[in-house]
Specification:
By secondary structure, the chain is mainly alpha-helical. It contains 26 helices and ten strands. It has a domain of about 200 residues: Neutral endopeptidase, domain 2. Helices cover about 50% and strands about 5% of the residues.
Length: about 700
């Protein structure tokens, strides 16, 4: 998941909920599995939404459901050179991009669009982004005013002013600062400060000593050095400046919390009076910086990671001013390299190749489409939803949400380990859950943003500054509950704990994730699994700490919290035993929330499907499609959306930085614990997909 004014750390996009145990023995099944399509004598009714040609029937579904459900697809869909991984989301992305490209090219060709309209801004932004001749001719000229601002800094006060400027430009330098919902008083906004300032994807990249990480650090140093050379530094100076950036970033990395530590919302909430924070971090000069960001009215701040800000404060005092300016120059150029000449683009891509293993830079129109979506997401999104999202699709999705919420309520009520008091609070939270489908009810107003065809880089910086100013304008005002953290064409979804809401952009509600023509089993296994996943994020190890109003408040009895934690720890141990590469294991603590949401979501949605089938067919026979029962199609649909080919480099990076488990474990992890799955495919104890009963876990 990428976010607009809702801060990244407060959003939890698509996730996972599983149960525990270790691998079982591998003795032969005592009875045949019931997975094969119907016998030739049976009339096979063709279904919609599943392609049985993608299956690998040479593998038993009870031994490896990931391979069984999509082995042929995995074999026939190698990763394109421009990608680091490949799955159904990419295929939908290709279709979506084709439509978005037509919209953009039509907008760019329309030079008569009304000045100031969304159509004009979207068309001019994309036209400027695609004008490589103008970009090459301009060189660094459009960036020169910002580079000159850095060069002109003479003292700490001037540095503080530039830090504020870089918050507006979203360069990521030193630390993060912005406006967010106060997580312990969700009726108001607060100013948040949190760790940041790194180039490498995670703090651990600066310290790990294995050969893979050493290779990445070597590429990072080369990246730094070559970029400084492009800026005009001679070889010796470029190398020296690269070492300076690495030294400062390593200091910041050392003070940063790990990704597992960042999953503790209570530890990330440290409210301080502004006077107290100013005394603790004098070199940040928060009153001056916040004043420059139009947040001068703030009398308190929420510090996410106080020890990190301690180190940032020391860095500003102990590092030479010239070195701090070098660090700022780096983060400015790095953050806009995609809008500079081909030499900068190529240098950035060479570094990304080492990180993710991608073989080829995506074609320019795809990169600039993504840039337009990021800069003008809702202006662009309005043009998209007019062509791509029907009211009927929205109604069907809302109906599924209603059914899945009802199933979740039943699972809470029938839970055997939770007390009545905690159940009441859980049901209150579920009933208060807000659902957003498709696109915002109220679109953003871009009238204050000026976009022209003169310069892509100027447009990019203008859009960033406009977006940041829109964010800070919220401070002191009422909570905007209509705001979205994803654009309408995004193929993803999220749960936002402080707002207690689930959000499904129109881009996600397309085949194969959602197909109004498919049978219920397929839709419940596909988008239903996502809906259940997002709903149960409100009750995972992080989400459960927020109440019905979104406040970070412990509403659990001590005994219930302990029981939940015990069950969640079983999930963590189970996933930590998964190893996709030699000596590389999934981090069960980092992926806990996503694993929990996958498992619980799948369980809850299975219950919703059963209710839907009961309403539709009563006690009568339930039809098979493609020779599979509804239950089998449900699990196949779940699995086929998670089939993924991924490069080893990208897989290693995912395991280190991504809270989602790799695709094969998102597929099999929950199923290995579900008796409903065993029954659907006739699996027996001793087969790999069946965990020994004492090793299974059940939360909801």
């Amino acid at each position: 998941m990428q976010k607009t004014s809702i801060l990244t750390r407060s959003l939890a996009a698509a996730a996972v909920w599983a149960v525990a145990g270790c691998a079982t023995s591998q003795k032969a099944p005592s009875t045949p599995t019931a997975a094969a399509p119907a016998a030739p004598t049976e009339a096979v009714v063709k279904g919609v939404g599943l392609d049985v040609a993608d299956l690998d029937p040479s593998v038993s579904p009870c031994e490896d459901f990931f391979q069984y459900s999509g082995g042929a697809w995995l074999k026939n869909n190698p990763i394109p050179a421009y990608a680091s991984s490949w799955g159904p989301r990419n295929l939908l992305g290709d279709r979506t991009q084709a439509l978005l490209r037509r919209i953009l090219e039509e907008a760019a060709a329309n030079t008569a669009a009304e000045k100031g309209s969304n159509l004009q801004k979207v068309g001019d932004f994309y036209a400027s982004a695609m004008d490589t001749v103008a970009i090459e001719k301009a060189g660094l000229a459009p960036l020169q005013p910002e580079l000159s601002r850095i060069a002109a800094v003479k003292d700490l006060r001037g540095l503080q002013d530039i830090i504020a400027r870089h918050k507006l430009l979203k360069t990521g330098a030193f630390f993060g600062a912005g406006v967010e919902v106060d997580e312990k008083k969700t009726t108001q906004y607060a100013v948040g400060l949190y760790q940041g300032g790194l180039t490498l994807p995670d703090r651990d990249y600066y310290f790990k000593q294995d050969a893979r990480t050493e290779t990445i650090r070597a590429a990072y140093r080369k990246y730094l050095t070559n970029m400084f050379a492009l800026l005009g530094d001679n070889p010796a100076t470029a190398q020296k400046n690269a070492a300076t950036v690495e030294r400062i970033e390593t200091r910041l990395a050392k003070a940063s919390r790990t990704r597992v530590e960042l999953r503790d919302p209570q530890a990330n909430y440290n409210k301080m009076a502004l006077a107290e924070a100013s005394k603790r971090y004098p070199n940040l000069n928060l009153p001056r910086v916040l004043g420059a960001l139009q947040l001068g009215a703030a009398q308190e701040v929420i510090v996410g990671q106080p020890a990190f800000l301690d180190e940032a404060n020391k860095v500003l005092k102990t590092e030479p001013l010239a070195d701090l300016k070098t660090y700022l120059r780096w983060h400015l150029v790095r953050s806009v390299s995609s809008a500079l000449t081909k030499a900068y683009v190529d240098e950035s891509f060479r570094f990304s190749q080492v990180l993710g293993g991608t073989k080829q830079l995506p074609t320019r129109w795809k990169r600039m489409l993504a840039s337009t979506d990021q800069a003008l997401g809702e202006a662009f999104g309005q043009l998209y939803v007019d062509k791509a999202f029907s009211p009927a699709a929205k109604r069907k999705a809302l109906e599924m949400v209603t059914n899945i919420k009802a199933s979740m309520a039943e699972h809470i009520q029938t839970n055997t380990w939770m007390s009545d008091a905690t159940k009441a609070e859980a049901l209150k939270k579920l009933n208060a859950l807000r659902v957003k489908i498709g696109y915002p009810d109220e679109w953003k107003d871009y009238s204050a943003l000026t976009i022209s065809r003169d310069s892509y880089l100027k447009n990019l910086l203008a859009a960033r500054e406009w977006d940041y100013r829109q964010e800070v304008k919220k401070y002191g005002g009422p909570i905007d509950r209509n705001e979205w953290g994803m654009t309408p064409s995004t193929i993803n979804a999220y749960y936002n704990p402080p707002m207690n809401e689930i959000v499904f952009p129109a881009g996600y509600l397309q085949p194969p994730f959602f197909d109004p023509k498919a049978d219920d089993a397929v839709n419940y296994g596909a988008i239903g699994g996502v809906i259940g996943h997002e709903i149960t994020h409100g009750f995972d190890d992080q989400g459960r700490q927020y109440d019905a109003e979104g406040n970070l408040r412990d509403w659990w009895t001590k005994e219930d919290a302990e029981k939940f934690t015990q069950r969640a720890e079983v999930v963590g141990r189970q996933y930590s035993a998964f190893s996709p590469l030699d000596s590389v294991f999934v981090n069960g603590k980092l992926t806990m929330g996503e694993n929990l949401a996958d498992f619980a979501g799948l369980t809850v949605v299975y219950g919703a499907l059963q209710k839907q089938l009961q309403q539709r067919y009563g006690s009568g026979p339930r039809p098979k499609f493609d020779g599979f029962t509804p239950e089998q199609r449900f699990f196949l649909s779940w699995a086929q959306l998670r089939r993924t080919n991924i490069r080893p480099e990208a897989l290693r990076q995912q395991i280190l930085t991504d809270p989602h488990s790799p695709g094969q474990y998102r597929t099999i992890g929950p199923l290995m614990n579900m008796p409903q799955f065993y029954e659907a495919f006739g699996c027996q104890e001793g087969q790999k997909m069946v965990r020994a009963q004492q090793d299974r876990a059940k939360i909801w």
